[in-house]
Write a structure and sequence with these properties.
2 domains; 11% helix; SH3 type barrels; mainly beta; 42% strand; Fumarylacetoacetate hydrolase, domain 2; 4 helices
C-alpha cells in the first residue's frame, strides 16, 4: 500500500495511491483511518511530504563506504543527530540554497523509516511492530558548516533540507538488496543497497527508542551510501529507493 498526503484544491488529506488517482481516506493512517468511495484523479492531486514528524532522527556513517569518504570509520554504535520538523518538504518542492551562510551544499540519498505507534525501549526483534512503512529521503547538508561547527544542527537543519516522499510504502523489507540511488540532473551520483547498512532498521529502532520516545509519524533516516557531493541552484536532485519510487527536488537560490 502506498499512502500519500496530498493537497487537492484547498484541502489537505491522506489517501492511498491507485492507478486512476488517490483513494480518499478519512482521518490519518496513524489514528482513525477509514476508506471512502471517492477517488481524486491524479490531475487534481499535488503530493506533499507523506508525513509531518515531530522529529527526524538521522543516522550518520551507517554505510562503510560513506564513512570512508568522510575520512573516518563506522562508529561503534549508531551516530545520531536530529533534523527539525521545519526542514521537511515534499516531492517537487524546492530546496533553498542558503547562499548567505553556506557555499557547499550536498545531496544525501537515504531510506527513511516511518514510525506507526509510540516506541520506547523497543527490542530489535519487536521493531517491525512499530514500523509503519518506508519512504525516500534526501538528507541535504551544508558541508562547510558541518566541518566548521563540529556539531551538525545548523548544517542539517535549514528549512527545506529534509525532502521526504513521494509516499509511504507499507510493504517493504530493507534487509533485502534494495537499491538507493541519487541522480543530479540525470547523472548518477550515489548508488548503494539497503543491505549494506551497518546497523539495520531493527537495530536502529532499538537504539533510538532507548533514549527518546518515537511518536506516530516520526521518521528515522538510515544513512547514505558513498558518492555525496555538491549541488547548486538550478540542479534537479532525484532520490530513488527500489520498491518506493523517486523523490525529486530542485535546488533554488533564496528569494
Amino acid at each position: 500500500m502506498r499512502i500519500v498526503r496530498f493537497k487537492s484544491g484547498e484541502d489537505i488529506r491522506y489517501g492511498v495511491a491507485d492507478e486512476e488517482g488517490v483513494i480518499l481516506y478519512e482521518g490519518t493512517p496513524f489514528f482513525v483511518w477509514e476508506p471512502t468511495e471517492t477517488v481524486v484523479p491524479w490531475s487534481k492531486v499535488s503530493l506533499l511530504a507523506p508525513v509531518l514528524p515531530t522529529k527526524v532522527v538521522c543516522v550518520g556513517k551507517n554505510y562503510e563506504d560513506h564513512a570512508g569518504e568522510m575520512g573516518g570509520e563506522v562508529p561503534p554504535e549508531p551516530m545520531t543527530f536530529l533534523k527539525p520538523s521545519t526542514a521537511v518538504i515534499g516531492p517537487n518542492a524546492n530546496v533553498v540554497y542558503p547562499t548567505r551562510l553556506s557555499q557547499e551544499v550536498h545531496h544525501e540519498a537515504e531510506l527513511a523509516v516511518v514510525i506507526g505507534k509510540p516506541a520506547r525501549n523497543v527490542k530489535a526483534e519487536d521493531a517491525g511492530n512499530y514500523v509503519f512503512g518506508y519512504t525516500a529521503a534526501n538528507d541535504v547538508t551544508a558541508r562547510d558548516l558541518q566541518r566548521r561547527d563540529g556539531q551538525w544542527g545548523r548544517a542539517k537543519g535549514f528549512d527545506t533540507f529534509c525532502p521526504l516522499g513521494p509516499w509511504i510504502e507499507t510493504e517493504l523489507d530493507p534487509s533485502e538488496r534494495l537499491s538507493v540511488i541519487c541522480r543530479v540532473n540525470g547523472e548518477v551520483r550515489q548508488s548503494g543497497y539497503t543491505s549494506d547498512m551497518v546497523y539495520g532498521v531493527p537495530e536502529l529502532v532499538e537504539f533510538i527508542s532507548s533514549f527518546t520516545t518515537l511518536l506516530p509519524g516520526d521518521v528515522i533516516l538510515t544513512g547514505t551510501p558513498a558518492g555525496v557531493g555538491p549541488v547548486v541552484p538550478g540542479d534537479l536532485m532525484e532520490v530513488e529507493v527500489e520498491g518506493i519510487g523517486v523523490l525529486a527536488n530542485r535546488v533554488v537560490a533564496p528569494a
